[in-house]
Amino acid sequence: MSKSLPYSMKDVHYDNAKFRHRSLFKVITQTLLTSNMRRECLSCSTGKFLGLLMIFGLACLMLTHTNKAHSVSDGLAKGIGTNEEHKEVTDVGIRFKKLFRRAPRLPPRLSPDEKIIHRNFTGKLKEPNVEEQWKARQQNVKDAFTHAWSGYKKFAMGYDELMPVSRLGVDGLGGLGATVVDALDTAMIMGLDEVVSEAGSWIESHLLDRIRQKGQVNLFETTIRVLGGLLSAYHLSGGDQGMTLAQKGPKPTIYLDIAKNLADRLLSAFTSSPTAIPFSDVVLRDSSAHSAPDGLSSTSEVSTLQLEFNYLSAISGDPKYSTEGMKVLAHLKTLPKTEGLVPIYISPHSGEFSGENIRLGSRGDSYYEYLIKVWLQLRDTQDGNFTYLHDMYEEAMRGVKHMLVQKSIPSELVFVGELPVGPKGYLSPKMDHLVCFLPGTLALGVTKGLTKEKAMKDNLLTFEDLENLKLAEDLTKTCFEMYSVTSTGLAPEIAYFHTKDYFESGLDGGNKSSEYVNDIIIKHADRHNLLRPETVESLFVLYRITQDPKYREWGWHIFESFEKYTKVESGGYSSLDDVTTVPPPKRDKMETFFLGETLKYLYLLFGDSSVIPLDKFVFNTEAHPLPIKSS
């Protein structure tokens, strides 16, 4: 028995005795024969009188009940009993029965030690077992990563991506072995030393030669996947006095040296441009750059380079990387916007936005993401005043709420639409899966990586912050329902929402039992799934910030669907052509971000929140964690 009990076992026995059944006779006799009662009654004439009166009253009541019962019984036997008489007897019987009814039984009161024993005996989960369940689920994600890596290693090592059905490798990102670099820090976080050794050894032996020999690459994709992956691996392997999650693989300086060599070549996209806006494509072998065939760059691409270039300057001591990257954001600050919202194209030749298409999906998404993340990265440094980034972010989020947010019918799912012909045109109820980055970004902007509980305790949140967090929660639900509404439990690449102005019948997700089957419309061309990470990214951030376990449960449902429908037995996971049919046809491609982002976010979602804390790290748009450096 624990010594810290707030009451004794005597109290427990007393409480239990209060609710033990006793007969009416036992109640009366125990009461009358109690020594205190007997002594007081014998010494008090009033007590004697009241006792006799009580006995007399009970005798009269019993005699009255007996007589009425007999008389009515006789009348019924003779056929002269009436309904009224029968009712009267029934009423008297009920009243009499109520008078002597038993007290209700209550469960016995258990001591704390007995509660633990009882809970174990009945098989109910104790609190520690809940975390054990999530550890087991986290191990399942780890096993999935190992399966994905094994397929890539067997059939596509050194290629950018795996075609798991064909068991072939393919170069679609410049031929720099993108899957190797993208997956490396995930393996470090998961503690998969063998994978870290294999990936690290390949990078040390082959990547620098690839960089020197390869031709054209996309500035944005190469920065977020390869440069970002190298920088994260540098920190997580102990560089910059960082974490040492990897026990095997090259020394941290190997990753840093390769990162600098790559970044020096990528800088040509900035220095070759006549404006602050970089060209979209770089030829690595001769460090030259040029614009895309249409002469334009994506707004999201030119504004999603700064986290990586800033961190490289910080650890290399060379400011040139950060200087070129931050010129872009400083220039974007000066351009006209619509309530903080910007078109999805920009010209590196004129430095001006091109067209009026406004959306938070492809070509627009990470512009808004990096406004708040770069501010978080730099706000505690002495490198300059970057509050303009936070101001731009806040203005943009107000614009999103005012111009893009709507609710579907009939079930009022909150979604973010598009303005394909600009702010004066119609709102399209189209929402890319890519937009599901937004809930996590909103939540991060509210608490700056702290939990909601701590932020509120420290009085850090404004009314607008709480409004933004509510929007983040609503959008996260919508993103999850884009999964649960389909037959496979996996989301399409694009969804449309039923509004008063738009509806198409016969284009639901296939799950007729979903409450939202009439809210979400999936066109035939949009039914593919690329193993994207945006929804599980937001689930991870929302769980870390709100500590609401439903986000973990939603993530588990999504993971189970990935396991059921995208896993290829020979190794790897495959994108799907149609999530509304079972079995879904496979697309035969495993994107690098499945290992670099999707499985990483799921692993962190199911794990301890102290691993890669959101107030100490900022994730680039490819889920590579970079430390937030303070002054």
TrEMBL record:
InterPro entries xref list: 6hp_glycosidase-like_sf, Glyco_hydro_47, Glycosyl_Hydrolase_47, Seven-hairpin_glycosidases
Gene3D superfamilies: 1.50.10.10
GO cellular component: endoplasmic reticulum; endosome; membrane; trans-Golgi network
Keywords associated with the record: Calcium, Disulfide bond, Glycosidase, Hydrolase, Metal-binding
Residue numbers binding Ca(2+): T621
Catalytic activity reported: N(4)-(alpha-D-Man-(1->2)-alpha-D-Man-(1->2)-alpha-D-Man-(1->3)-[alpha-D-Man-(1->3)-[alpha-D-Man-(1->2)-alpha-D-Man-(1->6)]-alpha-D-Man-(1->6)]-beta-D-Man-(1->4)-beta-D-GlcNAc-(1->4)-beta-D-GlcNAc)-L-asparaginyl-[protein] (N-glucan mannose isomer 8A1,2,3B1,3) + 3 H2O = N(4)-(alpha-D-Man-(1->3)-[alpha-D-Man-(1->3)-[alpha-D-Man-(1->6)]-alpha-D-Man-(1->6)]-beta-D-Man-(1->4)-beta-D-GlcNAc-(1->4)-beta-D-GlcNAc)-L-asparaginyl-[protein] (N-glucan mannose isomer 5A1,2) + 3 beta-D-mannose; N(4)-(alpha-D-Man-(1->2)-alpha-D-Man-(1->2)-alpha-D-Man-(1->3)-[alpha-D-Man-(1->2)-alpha-D-Man-(1->3)-[alpha-D-Man-(1->2)-alpha-D-Man-(1->6)]-alpha-D-Man-(1->6)]-beta-D-Man-(1->4)-beta-D-GlcNAc-(1->4)-beta-D-GlcNAc)-L-asparaginyl-[protein] (N-glucan mannose isomer 9A1,2,3B1,2,3) + 4 H2O = N(4)-(alpha-D-Man-(1->3)-[alpha-D-Man-(1->3)-[alpha-D-Man-(1->6)]-alpha-D-Man-(1->6)]-beta-D-Man-(1->4)-beta-D-GlcNAc-(1->4)-beta-D-GlcNAc)-L-asparaginyl-[protein] (N-glucan mannose isomer 5A1,2) + 4 beta-D-mannose
Enzyme Commission no: 3.2.1.-
Disulfide bond residue pairs: C436-C479
Essential cofactor(s): Ca(2+)
Active site (catalytic residues): E221 (proton donor), D365, E493 (proton donor), E534
Single GO BP term: carbohydrate metabolic process
UniProt-listed Pfam families: Glyco_hydro_47
Pathways involved: Protein modification; protein glycosylation
One Gene Ontology molecular-function label: mannosyl-oligosaccharide 1,2-alpha-mannosidase activity
PANTHER family listed in its UniProt record: ENDOPLASMIC RETICULUM MANNOSYL-OLIGOSACCHARIDE 1,2-ALPHA-MANNOSIDASE, MANNOSYL-OLIGOSACCHARIDE ALPHA-1,2-MANNOSIDASE-RELATED
Family from the record: Belongs to the glycosyl hydrolase 47 family.
Record protein name field: alpha-1,2-Mannosidase
Record organism: Gossypium darwinii
